[in-house]
Specification:
With about 400 residues, the protein is mainly α. The protein is built from 14 helices and two strands; from the N terminus they run ααααααααααββαααα. α4 runs antiparallel to α5, α4 packs antiparallel against α8 and α6 packs across α13.
């Protein structure tokens, strides 16, 4: 497993800085909504609004990159993303919050698509899993730092000052883009390199079947719905329900926002540790084989999080769930990258991103609605049932394609 190129490192760091505001909000908004004058039902709306708008802005972003290349759209998105984070501290209530979240969603459509296109354009298919793993790993360092130190910062200096400081720090993305302007302007965004031959005849091992865009879109929807949407948006409430308002660790009392930040940061730390490894494994053993076992781990971890009330087991189950969810995203990103080789990239990647956004946007809304009706435990168990159905359908779809010797569909 080789090291990523310097430009790939820079692009990933741009994403990391840009995510400061968004990652912090998931940690602190459920805890500070009442003091900010926001009704509880609006938390789910605000945490998902940026994803709903991306269902429209993803396709617009593809046209922007074809027209303007990589650098200028990324620069504009980084600057506006910093402004959107500052919007979280401007007085104005729900309307201002909603506008800031919608603006962030448009910015993230451009940031994510630009980074994805740059990495895939520069990477051979045989190493794409590892390259995607590195991008996930470095990007999520920003999220880990935000939920850990941002949560502590908010506990110490208060919500408004803490969020403002994180907004200023997110300007690091602008500095990096300026430093790598020439390299980004020289990167083509119209087409990826020629497709590599894939040895996948009927009768070859099922583990090495190439995954179709339809498979990738359905799977990323389910992973995003449960991990990014439901669990990430409600975990701080689960912790407060089971642990109270403070947690004592090694004799020190931590506020629940700080402890929730520690736990959320483990999600991103796990991405940094395992994403390059998992991506490399999928290059070697096949996307389907790695996807299958990670899905089983994900289902078991979510069931444990729902049923095991012991605080230590709750934390352990959450960490394992984070590991599985992050790893699945790496595998699916690499799989969709496989399918667009030799094609105009924006359409297929845009649909994949939209499927991910639809799941992540639905998660908080569905989750908070179900929590109000049936409680956290039963809501998480409903998620377990959904993941089992998706895995069974994916297995049947893949086996059928393998038995009939079908090539991967190029349109989802």
């Amino acid at each position: 497993m080789g090291r990523p190129a310097r430009t790939d490192l820079a692009i990933s760091a741009v994403l990391a800085f840009s995510l400061f505001g968004d990652s912090l909000l998931y940690n602190v908004l459920p805890l500070y909504a009442e003091s900010l004058g926001l009704p509880l039902f609006s938390v789910g709306l605000l945490l998902s609004a940026n994803r709903w708008v991306r269902l429209l802005s993803n396709s617009a972003a593809s046209r922007v990159f074809r027209r303007w290349g990589l650098f200028w759209p990324l620069m504009a998105a980084a600057v506006l993303g910093m402004i959107s984070t500052m919007g979280y501290v401007v007085p104005g209530g729900l309307g201002v919050f909603l506008a800031a979240r919608l603006l962030w969603g448009i910015c993230w459509s451009h940031l994510r698509l630009g980074a994805f296109m740059a990495v895939v354009a520069a990477t051979a298919q045989s190493a794409l899993g590892a390259a995607m793993g590195w991008m996930h790993a470095i990007t999520r360092l920003g999220s880990a730092a935000t939920v850990l130190f941002g949560g502590l910062l908010v506990d110490v200096v208060g919500y408004h000052r803490g969020v403002f400081i994180m907004a200023v720090l997110s300007g690091g993305a602008v500095v990096l883009l300026l430093s790598y302007r020439q390299s980004l302007e020289n990167t083509t965004t119209e087409h990826f390199g020629p497709a590599e031959a894939v040895d996948d005849p009927a009768g070859s091992p099922l583990t090495h079947v190439q995954l179709s865009p339809l498979f990738c879109n359905l799977s990323i929807f389910a992973v995003s719905l449960i991990n990014t949407g439901l669990v990430m948006a409600s975990l701080s409430l689960l912790l407060r329900e089971r642990l109270g308002t403070e947690v004592v660790i090694l004799g020190a009392a931590l506020g629940i926002a700080t402890f929730s930040g520690v736990l959320h940061s483990l999600r991103w730390v796990s991405a940094f540790i395992v994403s390059p490894l998992v991506g490399g494994f999928s290059d070697r053993w096949g996307r389907w084989f790695v996807y299958l076992w990670l899905s089983v781990v994900q289902i078991a971890a979510l069931a444990a999080l729902a049923l095991l009330a012991e605080p230590v087991l709750t934390v352990l189950a959450a960490v394992v769930l984070f590991f599985a969810g992050n790893s699945l995203k790496v595998v699916l990103d690499a799989a969709i990258g496989d399918s667009v080789r030799g094609l105009s990239s924006a359409l297929v990647i845009g649909r994949f991103n939209s499927a991910s956004d639809l799941g992540a946007a639905s998660g908080p809304l569905i989750g908070y609605g179900l929590v109000a009706a049936i409680g956290l435990t039963h809501t998480y168990l409903a998620g377990v049932a959904l993941l089992i159905v998706v895995l069974a359908a994916a297995a049947a779809h893949t086996a059928e394609r393998k038995n009939t010797g079908k090539e991967a569909d190029l349109c989802p």
